[in-house]
Amino acid sequence: MSVSRSEAASAIVRPAMPDPRQLMRDLQVFRDPQPGRSLWELGITLIPFLGLFAAIIAAADAGYLLALALTPLAGLFLLRLFIIQHDCGHGSFLRERRSNDWFGRMLGVFTLTPYDCWSLSHARHHAMTGNLDKRGFGDVDTLTVREYCERSRTQRLGYRLYRHPLTLLGFGPAYLFLLRHRLPVGLMKEGWKFWISALGTNLATLAILAVPIWLVGFGVTLAVFLPTLLFAASMGVWLFYIQHQFPHAYWESKSDWSFAEAALMGSTHLDLQPVLRWFTGNIGIHHVHHLSSTIPFHRLPEVLKAHPALRDLNRYTAWESLSAFRLALWDEEQQRMVTFAEAEKMMG
């Protein structure tokens, strides 16, 4: 028999939390896009990325290890391009929806993310995060302890392999960006728009990569592009994981689920060092982002200054976030995430 969140709250130590619905209203003052600032942020990200990518290809002539050493930096710029694409999807980059969409599609060519497919899936993630009856839209798959106990041995093994850090940070990102995004997986029957998005992104990416392939060859281009992409993808999955997978996250059945509570209580504040905060576009301030997703990424720190109580709510450092990869299941009884070892003890 599961217990409600209010009944379990006494066992959970939380910092004082503002009223989510009132906070949503208070945050409206931060929501207006600032086109000049947005285009500046795009310029200081895209231009260095292209220049660095060209420099890495040129450095490959002096030795592949030298070129390889520069790919993490290029990967960080690519990650930031994805964050800007993410803002386009929320309509917070520019004022007009059409302009946001076309900039998002352009950036999707670099991030290998078909914009129209991703933006629909991501919108569903925002609308359903923390809802036990609406899982499966842009989330890391999460079972409850009860569901895990009901699975067969083979199914449990498959889930264990899926939740392993090597899968989540290694095989998973490679599969997602190199294979899954190449087709409108999950949206194949939703209309031609999503086929055009996926296949059009593929063709545009190939057209851009044709330039370095022509100049230095397919092998060198691939040896530079793949590590850059996979580093950015793994960093992105790490961010996405800790944003919603933490000990006292928020999961409720549909009847008890609240959008505002799920946004604020079910998302973290990943408090990063300034350099990483810049490269990740402040997306670590994720509880604020989920509560009011149309706030431009460069304005999220302003929210913390205006509402200091949000700084310590679900706050984790980069180092602390690593321990969250041990978590695997949601325990409805205790209202918290647990490890496989803890679940095995419960099963007897």
Any overview of this molecule?
The protein is mainly α and 348 residues long. Helices cover 61% and strands 4% of the residues. It is built from 17 helices and five strands. The chain has a three-stranded mixed β-sheet. Strands 2-3 form a two-stranded parallel sheet. The longest helix is centred in the middle third of the chain and has 27 residues, at 218-244. The model is unreliable at 1-14 (pLDDT under 50).
Count of runs of 4 or more consecutive helical residues? 17
β-sheet strand percentage: under 5%
What general outline do the C-alpha atoms trace? Answer: globular
Radius of gyration: 21 Å
* Major beta sheet summary: 3 strands, mixed
Structure class: mainly alpha
The run of helices and strands is HHHHHHEHHHHHHEHHHEHEEH
Unreliable residue stretches: 1-14
Strand order of the largest sheet: 1-4-5
Overall helicity: 55-70%
Measured between the Cα atoms of the first and last residue, the distance is 17 Å
**Roughly what is the average pLDDT, rounded to an integer?**
92
Key structural traits:
single chain; 348 residues; mainly alpha; 3-stranded mixed beta sheet; two-stranded parallel sheet; 61% helix
Short synopsis of the structure:
The chain is mainly α. The chain has helices at residues 5-8, 20-26, 35-59, 64-89, 97-111, 115-128, 145-150, 153-163, 165-178, 192-216, 218-244, 259-265, 274-279, 286-291, 300-306, 318-321, 340-347; strands at 143-144, 269-270, 315-316, 327-331, 336-339.
